[in-house]
Amino acid sequence: MHVVEILRKLVGFPSVVGTSNDAIVGWIDAHLRAFGVEAHILPGPEGDRANLFATIGPSDRPGYVLSGHMDVVPAHEAGWRTDPFELRAEDERLYGRGTSDMKGFLAAVLAAVPALTARPLARPVHLAFSYDEEAGCRGVPHLLARLPDLCAPPLGAVIGEPSGMRAILAHKGKAAARINVKGRSGHSSRPDLGLNAVHAMADVLNAAIATAENLAEGPFDDAFEPPYSSLQAGTIVGGQAVNIIPDLCTLEVEARAISSIDPISLLARLREAAEALRARGFAVEWEILSAYPALSLPPTAALAGLLRELTGKAPLAAVSYGTEAGLYQRAGVDAIICGPGDIARAHKPDEFILASELAACQAMVEALAARCRA
């Protein structure tokens, strides 16, 4: 199948984050089996979602991982001109949810499978397709836990997030948390008889603001924009009516950390402020929604040199958004980002990718296959 037709099939599966991905996993599995490639379907603990891992070549020798996620963000935004889950072609532009982020990469890899299987590989190429990346990289840790049973330690992993086919060496880490503060309801005329959860949450919110201000003062890493770690309160919800003492308030926050800093550590001041509310009679729930580490690959790494040769472009030092690459690195696998499309088009109505970008990515994968035959 041509890469555009494969992309059309993949876009047609509404594999929205947090939902079952049985259909898209089944189609990819069947596509691989048509070329004699056996895939391992690795169910996650959720029960209705799975990762997929396949090896082309000898699994007992070090090789390279081509990694991407099968899930997409929802497509409820106003502005879609046609069904977001039906690929629409206009000249070189191919529109649809997930075209850039990141079913375009999956399509290019799957289109290269005939070239990958045409002749024996001396080193393997592994396909690692994950679920629920858009929920904070929740699926890939389960795949990485199985990696020692599936293959020899890889030489490196290419994470195909949209990068304009230019390799990226580093990205920030992220941690997101939800804080629930529960007080006691009552009539607003008797605040002495209630516990106002919204007022109490102000202590946590002030801790978030103070942390954000402190982070802007450093430490710094000039590879990133902004060159420091950051924290923000993203949502806050509480109360029922102006004359009812609010008994519940929920705050969601996220932190993004430069390399060498654990993103969860940036939330410590907020957690301390939340836990202190217990002494005043409030119940507090603290939940980490997602967390993944930063990526930092040295420009002298062999994987960086390989991608420079495969793409003909010098790697970019860093981006501020996050990917699964940091989790691969933490698992002991060198990782780099390189894929078709543009992150600026992602998570927007009329998301698109260029046919030329798909062709460039397929060519890169086929060039990698040629290297693995040497």
What does this structure look like?
The protein has 374 residues and is α+β, with helices and mostly antiparallel strands. It has two domains: 3-170 and 294-372, Aminopeptidase (3-Layer(aba) Sandwich); 173-292, Alpha-Beta Plaits (2-Layer Sandwich). It is built from ten helices and 17 strands. The strands form five sheets. A six-stranded mixed β-sheet has the order 1-2-6-3-7-16, sandwiched between helices. Strands 11-13-9-14 form a four-stranded antiparallel β-sheet, with helices on one face. A hairpin with a 2-residue loop joins strand 4 and strand 5 (93-95). Helix 1 packs across helix 3 (99-111) and helix 3 (99-111) crosses helix 10. 48% of the residues are buried. The model has no long low-confidence stretch (mean pLDDT 97). InterPro entries: AcOrn-deacetyl, ArgE/DapE_CS, Bact_exopeptidase_dim_dom, Peptidase_M20, Peptidase_M20_dimer, Peptidase_M20A. This is Acetylornithine deacetylase.
Tell me about the biggest sheet?
Answer: 6 strands, mixed
CATH architecture of the largest domain: 3-Layer(aba) Sandwich
**CATH-assigned fold name of the largest domain:** Aminopeptidase
Q: Could you tell me the radius of gyration in angstroms?
A: 23 Å
Order of helices and strands: HHEEEEEHHEHEEEEHEEEHEEHHEEH
Number of helices: 10
Kindly estimate the percentage of residues that lie in beta strands according to DSSP: 15-25%
